[in-house]
Amino acid sequence: MRAYVLKQYGGPEGSQLMDVPAPVPRPRDILVEVRAAGLNPVDFKFRQGKLRAILRPKLPFVLGNEFAGEVIAVGSDVKRFGVGDRVFARVAKDRAGAFAEQACVDEDDAAHMPRNLDFTAAAAVPLAALTALQALRDELGVQPGQKLFISGGAGGVGTFAIQIAKGMGAYVTTTASKRGEALVRSLGCDEVIDYTVQDISSEQGRFDAGLELIGGKTLEQMFEIMKPGARIVSVAALPEPQTAIRDLGDRRALAAIFWLISYGIRSRARRAGVSYRYLFMHPSGSDLALLAELIEQGKLKAVVDRTYPFARIAEALDYVESGRAKGKVVVTNP
Ligand SMILES: NC(=O)c1ccc[n+]([C@@H]2O[C@H](COP(=O)([O-])OP(=O)(O)OC[C@H]3O[C@@H](n4cnc5c(N)ncnc54)[C@H](OP(=O)(O)O)[C@@H]3O)[C@@H](O)[C@H]2O)c1
Fold first, then answer.
1. Which of 209, 218, 219, 217 is nearest to 239 (CA)?
2. Bond from prior residue into 23 cis (ω within 30 degrees of 0)
3. Mind listing the pLDDT tens digit for each residue in 84-123?
4. How far is the CA of 176 from the centre of ligand 1 (A)?
5. Does ligand 1 come within 6 angstroms of the Cβ of 178?
6. Which of 105, 117, 98, 95 is nearest to 40 (CA)?
7. Could you give the CA distance from residue 88 to residue 126 in angstroms, rounded to a whole number?
């Protein structure tokens, strides 16, 4: 089968479309004919080798973290899926393999596709929507009437986060440039700050909770705009030790490194009286089923910015790497 394979960390030249053997399902796996795969910043960061400290699979390695498609075989212990089912999934990080004609996923990480979506829109959902849901529900515990700030609302995660937060009853403010403003407003955002002309620091002490999708200076400024006692969860900055210990297994040395490099962020959070957490999103078939329900009820939609044929995946990944995508980018198999 054709697959987009990482052969050497670095630039795009280290990855290529090539023929590889089709994956063989383990007992709890479903084997899926991939009809569309979503792209995410993690794909180019992984290709660059930026995640090597926490994830180091043997190369060559088939890239890609989410897909939608049709089940073509099931492992001996699979209970919930059968051949012909239309499914979508965020694949476990250490397996990946979504940028291929066929991919395997543990049945616990997959769900039936929303009936009202085609494969392209369904492939745009898993990673970004699960991230938004888990951050807002599990880390921030967003409550009706709370003032929530989301940095970078026009991208993959942000477009889902705005809709989910509005569904939870929050008052949502986000940053977007002129290019993204109409989009975030169409998703229900209450206030938009154009980060290219206005510094968010002027919003001092206004927010009960923050979802941080940009990192760097944006995170630093977010501490200033929170009320004392507020919570910030970031998926773009640095893991703090609690998350590192929980999510990186028993690699204590790594947790110590994250303790050290997140020290500045944690000190800043303490000074502002704000709690800071990092989130590694988790694949979850049950959360995906919940998102599918919201989509079928018309309460959540996937925003697909661009689609590319699978053969042009390198170009699609370049576009994601440009950092300008509005919503999601998807590659489709014929
Ligand atoms: N930890 C996890 O488990 C996890 C999960 C998912 C994602 N992430 C991370 O979360 C981050 C966001 O992911 P994503 O998929 O949403 O990214 P994305 O789709 O690539 O985000 C692109 C959007 O960000 C906007 N943007 C860029 N710079 C901005 C700034 N300074 N302020 C406000 N908006 C800005 C761009 O808008 P303009 O073009 O208008 O500037 C563009 O629409 C990435 O770093 C990703 O790796 C982590």
1. 219
2. no
3. 999 999 999 999 999 999 999 999 999 999 999 999 999 9
4. 10
5. no
6. 98
7. 7
